[in-house]
Amino acid sequence: MKALLFDVFGTVVDWRGGVAREVATFCARHGITDVDPAAFADAWRARYQPAMEEVRAGRRPFVRLDVLHRENLDATLAAFDIEARRLDSVDLDELNRAWHRLDPWPDAVPGLKRLRQDHIIAPLSNGNVALLLNMAKRAGLPWDAILGAEVVAAYKPDPASYLRTVDLLGLAPEEVCMVAAHNDDLHAARACGLKTAFLPRPTEHGPGQCTDLAADSNWTWIAADLEDLADQLDAA
Length: 236
Prior knowledge:
Layout: E1 3-6, E2 13-14, H1 15-29, H2 37-46, H3 48-56, H4 65-79, H5 89-96, E3 103-104, H6 108-116, E4 120-125, H7 129-139, E5 147-148, H8 149-152, H9 159-168, E6 176-180, H10 183-191, E7 195-198, E8 221-222, H11 226-235
Parallel strand pairs: 1-4, 1-6, 4-5, 6-7, 7-8
Antiparallel strand pairs: 2-3
């Protein structure tokens, strides 16, 4: 195995906590007092897959995730009875970049640094290049390259998203491992011939999370976190 590709939202960074923090700051700045920031983050995220499905299904051309997030932000504001047209578009664009400023899980940076010693590491995320680059600079994520949906013009779990990314590295699928906290991501990657590594993030969706609490298949590796995955690969 020569490379490890990583899901990012939820696997490497805490999207819910980061977005909720930014929403709380935004609401305080604009005197909005009746919005639960965590509930807003959940509602915004709930539009993520349906928006990408419009692209995957061919009903609209590929657009980067920043565009989908911005459209979804307007829809979420409306759902919370916040009139986006009365807010400064510059402020809304800045709130949309909350997804660029997410914090890594505590094990993420040390784990990635260890994994990078013997493997190529890169994101295979639905995030766009600027988003992933800004996130990496802020959080100290030591990627060897920025790869993912925008680079290959395909959103996971479209097989093209995995296979085109592997091809960009000049590798065969069996030389690459997909690392994710989401079983569905790994099912799609394994169907494309990649190795797989699962690690749980039991608070990704908050204290009531009931999905992806454990591996649902015999993945190539099952780890407690990224440091544990590094331990297992060191011992292999």
